[in-house]
């Protein structure tokens, strides 16, 4: 199959592109970085800043749209430019391609509902705490409103080899050897190993499913405490966690965001409402749609080995 992957100069897109190429597909990759700045070789790479508009591309059978601006702070316009307008550009560029996979995020689920074993039918787009989540929800509306064949994938907290977000952030957030954490660490999270995500993409490409929305995560949710201790220990850091009551953390986040807004600081505050909401509260996904309709069978966990083998 001939496949285009956007956002290939990033963590998720690059992993998807290299894994698909290793499976024998002809992959065309696109990213905003210059080729010289891409650390690992990508097949048929072309630098493409989506803000530049539609570009000439080779004929392909499928598109995996991974390109996105990710973060929990920053001007709304910056996120919309990439995540909404950029998605529109990709859809226009590949207007004739029948199989379109849009990589979204479980961050789109409305914050005014219980996020426990949440299904794809739950409310989306309301009471969201940052521009990233709002722009991803708007991008989904754009894709769904186009009435084209499109599959939307919603992973949550993607991690794994080459991770540029979770691990670096955890290591940088440690103060005097301690990591302050909102909540009590006992709440469960659905997280997504990047190779499980690649497997989901492969299942979409191999299936007859042309339209639909699917949560994608590891087969079992994990407590915040176990997640953080595993990641820190794997990176040679002491797992010294300092839990902060959720209410205290939320108040601190509101104040931090307020200070940043008043002084127009571009760097994200150390604590945001988005972070508190996603770390101090239950955030688990119902994967039954992916299991039943895609034949999704994730094998990896935070322990870095096939999940089925952990207990054997």
General description of the model:
This protein is an alpha/beta fold. It has a single domain, classed as Rossmann fold. The protein is built from 9 helices and 13 strands. The strands form 4 sheets. Strands 3-2-1-4-5-6-11 form a 7-stranded parallel sheet, with helices on both faces. The protein has a two-stranded parallel sheet with strand order 7-10. Helix 1 links the parallel strand 1 and strand 2. Helix 1 packs across helix 5 and helix 2 packs parallel to helix 3.
CATH T-level topology: Rossmann fold
**Number of structurally distinct domains:** 1
CATH architecture: 3-Layer(aba) Sandwich
* CATH homology superfamily: NAD(P)-binding Rossmann-like Domain
Name of the top-level CATH class = Alpha Beta
How many whole angstroms does the radius of gyration measure? Answer: 19 Å
Number of strands: 13
Overall residue-averaged pLDDT value: 92
Strand-pairing-aware structural class: alpha/beta
Short description:
With 312 residues, the chain is an alpha/beta fold.
What topology emerges from the helices and strands here?
Layout: E1 2-6, H1 11-22, E2 26-31, E3 45-47, E4 62-65, H2 76-93, E5 99-103, H3 131-145, E6 151-155, E7 158-159, H4 166-173, E8 179-182, E9 188-189, E10 192-193, H5 194-206, E11 212-216, E12 222-223, H6 224-234, E13 241-244, H7 246-262, H8 273-279, H9 288-294
Parallel strand pairs: 1-2, 1-4, 2-3, 4-5, 5-6, 6-11, 7-10, 8-13
Antiparallel strand pairs: 9-12
Helix pairs in contact: 1-5, 2-3
């Amino acid at each position: 199959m001939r496949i285009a992957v956007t956002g290939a100069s990033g963590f998720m897109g690059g992993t998807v592109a290299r894994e698909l190429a290793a499976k024998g597909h002809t992959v065309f990759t696109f990213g905003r970085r210059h080729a010289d700045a891409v650390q690992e070789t990508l097949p048929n790479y072309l630098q493409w800043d989506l803000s530049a508009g539609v570009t000439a591309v080779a004929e392909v059978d499928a598109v995996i749209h991974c390109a996105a601006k990710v973060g929990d702070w920053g001007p709304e316009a910056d996120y919309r430019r990439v995540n909404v307008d950029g998605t529109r550009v990709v859809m226009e560029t590949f207007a004739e391609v029948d199989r379109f996979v849009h990589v979204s995020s479980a961050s789109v689920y409305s914050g005014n509902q219980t996020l426990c074993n949440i299904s794809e039918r739950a409310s989306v787009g309301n009471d969201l705490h940052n521009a990233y989540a709002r722009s991803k929800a708007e991008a989904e509306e754009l894709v769904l409103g186009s009435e084209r064949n499109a599959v939307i994938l919603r992973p949550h907290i993607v991690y794994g080899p080459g991770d540029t977000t979770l691990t670096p952030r955890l290591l940088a957030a440690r103060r005097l050897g301690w990591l302050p954490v909102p909540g009590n660490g006992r709440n469960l999270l659905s997280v997504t190993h990047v190779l499980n995500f690649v497997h989901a993409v492969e299942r979409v490409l191999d299936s007859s499913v042309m339209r639909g929305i699917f949560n994608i995560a590891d087969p079992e949710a994990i407590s915040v405490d176990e997640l953080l201790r595993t990641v820190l220990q794997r990176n040679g850091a002491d797992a010294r966690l300092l839990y902060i009551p959720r209410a205290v953390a939320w108040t601190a986040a509101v104040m931090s965001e307020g200070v940043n807004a008043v002084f127009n600081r571009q760097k994200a505050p150390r604590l945001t409402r988005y972070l508190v909401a996603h770390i101090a509260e239950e955030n688990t996904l119902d994967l039954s749609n992916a299991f039943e309709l895609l034949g999704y069978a994730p094998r990896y966990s935070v322990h870095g080995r096939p999940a089925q083998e952990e207990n054997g």
